[in-house]
Amino acid sequence: MNLYYELLQYPVFSMKEVNALYSSERTARAALGKLLKENMVLKIRNGLYTCVSGENGGPVANRFQVASAITSSSYVSHHTAFEYYGTVDQVFYEVYVGSETRFHDFEFDGYTYHYVKEQMKEGIVSPEFSGGVRVTDKERTIVDSIKDINLIAGLEEVLSCVVSVNSIDEAKMINYLAGYDSAFLYQKTGFIFNEYQTELGVSDDFIKICNDRSGNSKRYLTNGISEPCYSGEWKLVYPKNIKQMKNGGIEDAAI
């Protein structure tokens, strides 16, 4: 038996997969240790491994597969989910991982994997032919990113990603918003979708639902607004040039 070729079928594996190939755990550990020493297998973190590709010398597993295997409940979330769906212009080296089970942040192959506390079980999908990837669907990704806009990607990047999403399912959006049951989240989401209604192709009914459930409090859309404007309709303070924002600044055409 060639252990390396047996393990190649798993983008990410643990001792469980190795033990299944041997009569004793001691023999299995010795065989895995040999592959690690020969640099044919890489240790991702304690108890988690991936094979080294014979083609490029890098890990077989990509960052999305690694994120999905960290715990039994882990999945790709927030900005990293937008990266998975191809709505991001550039690669980020921070990987955001939702999980019911907490884990310590760690680095592997140039990426830092960050734990994000799971707050909802709905909206996690396993795309076909993804090699074990679990990721929030587009609508859940939008809602999560708006909810945590000050904690992860920031307003400009979130707007850039959201506007790049095609065919948004309004029923799913309403379902996830209801799951979080936050007036501020309805307020932020409704305001953004109202500003970009044409680009996103959402209905007036969706905007109205968000408005009706947004409460009466006056709030700031995001932190650190240098040129504030106020929306009386949404009771929200927002940046003056919000429609020209993209990727951390003002688009060239607006300058």
Commentary on this structure:
It comes from Eubacterium ruminantium. This is Transcriptional regulator, predicted component of viral defense system. It is a single chain. The protein is an alpha+beta fold. It has a domain at about 65-240. It has helices at about 5, 15-20, 25-35, 65-70, 80-85, 140-145, 155-165, 170-180, 185-195, 195-200, 205-210, and strands at about 40-45, 50, 75, 95-100, 105-110, 110-115, 125, 135, 220, 230, 235-240, 245, 250. The longest helix is centred in the first third of the chain and has 13 residues, at about 25-35. About 35% of the residues are buried.
Order of helices and strands: HHHEEHEHEEEEEHHHHHHEEEEE
The biggest beta sheet is recorded as:
4 strands, mixed
Q: Unreliable segments (pLDDT under 50, ≥5 consecutive)?
A: 247-255
Give a count of the beta strands, DSSP E runs of length 2 or more: 13
Q: What spatial form do the alpha-carbon principal axes imply?
A: elongated
Estimate the mean pLDDT confidence.
Answer: 93
Number of helices: 11
- Broad structural category: alpha+beta
**Level of helix content?**
25-40%
Radius of gyration: 22 Å
Strand content: 15-25%
Strand order of the largest sheet: 3-4-6-5
- Give the CA-CA distance, first to last residue: 64 Å
